[in-house]
Amino acid sequence: MYIAIGCMIIGVVTGYFMRGRMDGFPLGKVTMAVICLLLFILGLELGRNDMLMENLPVLGIKSFVIAFMTVLGSVVFAWILYRYVVQGKKNGKEDGR
Amino acid sequence: MRDSLVIVGFFIIGVVLARFGVFDALDVTVVSKYTLYLLMFSVGLGLGLDRKIFSTIRKQPVRILLLPVATTIGTFAGAVASFFILRGLSFADVCALSSGFGYYSLSSIFLNEMRGAEIGTMALAANIVRELLTLLFAPLMVKWFGKLAPISSGGATTADTTLPVIAKVSGSEFVPVSVFHGVVMDISVPFWLTVIMNFY
Asked: What is the ipTM of this complex?
């Protein structure tokens, strides 16, 4: 885990010093290819595991519950921020005039 | 959106080939570990090369900088709720699955390494669904929860995949906020995963 974060930090530093010298480099495509390879590998691991394949519908439903609840929590807190911090401050300024 | 479909396509091809016994002899864990390091490097490289990111962040009003905090608190509140709804998942696993913030590639690969294929697969599904929910319901989110809601919902994806939709439903003045939010959430994913791994 720490090695992976270290790789990201090395990437940031490398990118900073390579600015303007990598303009033709298709970084987006390379990143996309790496992601595809990794997800392909994840697919292989899932596919060769019979126990996981049998439990796939259950895993899917559980994943959906987590996605739905985290989105719900996020929008509620975004709403609180929008209402009391962003809009509240704006209204406060108008009242003061 | 198209990229997401291509990525899911590769995942499905992997599953199908494995069902037919192709690549049975390949030791995938070693390959995936070094490919993960390569991915982390290229994500960092992209951030380092981008000239606009840091000036975009500096121009934001201070209060807007709280949005990633709101997203994080909201997401973990959702994780607590999920823990009580679902059975058979440890609290740490639910938190780890939630802390992808929609960044399915990184989170599924990390968790596959640390927790095995079951949690890795769930991380892929949970985080792809988070992105899809954001893409599909962004207009309703703005209507019910205000203009920051789709950004918060999009989590780590708001600097790239969900940005066009957010620009459309919240307005183009929210694009810098969305980019800032996406970058902060992106960076926070490996941070949270590391923290949560210490709780197992």
From this structure: 0.84
Ordered mean pLDDT values, 10 residues apiece, chain B (200 residues):
78 92 81 83 85 72 87 98 93 96 90 91 92 89 95 93 86 85 92 89
A70–B contact, CB cutoff 8 A? yes
Q: Which residues of A touch B112 (CB under 8 A)?
A: 42, 45
- CA of B49, closest CA in chain A: separation in Å? 4
Residue with tokens 């390959």: B31
**Nearest CB to A47 within list B15, B41, B44:** B15
- The residue among A5, A46, A58 whose CA lies nearest residue B116 is A46
Number of independent structural domains in chain B: 1
Contact B124, B11 (CB under 8 A): yes
B51, B121, B149: residue with CB nearest A78: B149
Chain B residue numbers touching A40 (CB-CB < 8 A) = 10-11, 13-14
B150 within a domain of the structure (yes/no): yes
Neighbours of A40 (CB within 10 A): 23
B58-108, pLDDT tens digit by residue?
Answer: 776 778 889 999 999 999 999 999 999 998 899 999 999 999 999 988 898
A26 and A62 share one domain: no
Asked if residue B155 belongs to a domain, the reply is yes
